[in-house]
Amino acid sequence: MAEYEHVRKGKLVLKGESDRSKKRKHKKEKKEKSEKEKSAVIVDDDAVNHGGWWKCQKLSEITGTIAIEFQDGQYIKSVDDGTFILGAKHENRDGPAFDEEFSAFIVNDSKIYIKSGFGKYLAVDNKTNMVVGRSDAAGQQECFEPVFNDGKMAIQAANNCFLTIDPEDDQLIALHKSVSNGNGVCVIRSNAYRGEIISKNAPIEEKIEDIDQIEINYVKKFQKFQDKKMKLCKDDKSELKNAQKSGKLHESLLDRRSKMKSDRYCK
Q1: In whole angstroms, what is the distance from residue 166 CA to residue 11 CA?
Q2: Most confident of the following: 49-53, 162-166, 234-238, 254-258
Q3: What pTM does this model have?
Q4: Among candidates 36, 29, 96, which has minimal Cα distance to 67?
Q5: Mean pLDDT of the chain
Q6: CA dist 89 to 71, 81, 148, 154, 163, Å?
Q7: Is 108 exposed, middle or buried (0-12, 13-18, 19+ CB in 10 A)?
Q8: DSSP string covering 79-122, please?
Q9: What is the DSSP code (8-state) at residue 144?
Q10: Which domains occur in the chain, in start order?
Q11: Measured distance CA(155)–CA(122) in Å, rounded
Q12: Cα Dmax for the chain
């Protein structure tokens, strides 16, 4: 019996049982983390600061509704006489105005057409080098080529000159054959839907695309489950989708939560 006293006493552990349970838990946590990362929305603070209008980085993105920004918060604006000028500076998180919006059409692998809000195609007046929008149809003269280099962009017109702003009267012109000292550098922005654009400071509950899951996450965070049942607002969720696009998602979720008596923060 003396030999048994030297045997270490403890809980009966089957071979490999303890390690396997830990590994299984680790794999589960890793899988859940991976799924959360996949559902997270790509944060684009630059787009947030420009009213949801994001920077086009390649030709294939320059299609549909666009805005042309030459200085931070200042966009090309259409004038009713067919000319274009640099508009007033916008406040932070404010996108372009209606008369600063254009339509872009991809012509081929390198060129695009641009149409103003008045329904006219942009082209360069060869006599004045001014960019004007007075064409009802598009051809070679109405072609523009976005040129990308080292993260920056410039737009070359049909006269092989780059678009820039005349410092004397803020008119949009195509006069110089090269881009120097920042003259001619611009940004084309699009408001095409890419998923929700949010800030890094947004709550983690909002950093997913599924609007149903966002509401469930908020319910889990704030609601008391007295009867062990989750209670969701039965109102139409289309209001959440509209609020998500307009940047008022949090307020809308709060309104829906206030209708649920089991929410400890909304009574």
Answers
A1: 84
A2: 162-166
A3: 0.61
A4: 96
A5: 79
A6: 8, 22, 25, 20, 19
A7: exposed
A8: -TTSBEEEPPPPPTT----GGG-EEEEE-SSS-EEEE-TTS-EE
A9: B
A10: 48-190 (2.80.10.50), 204-258 (no CATH)
A11: 12
A12: 112
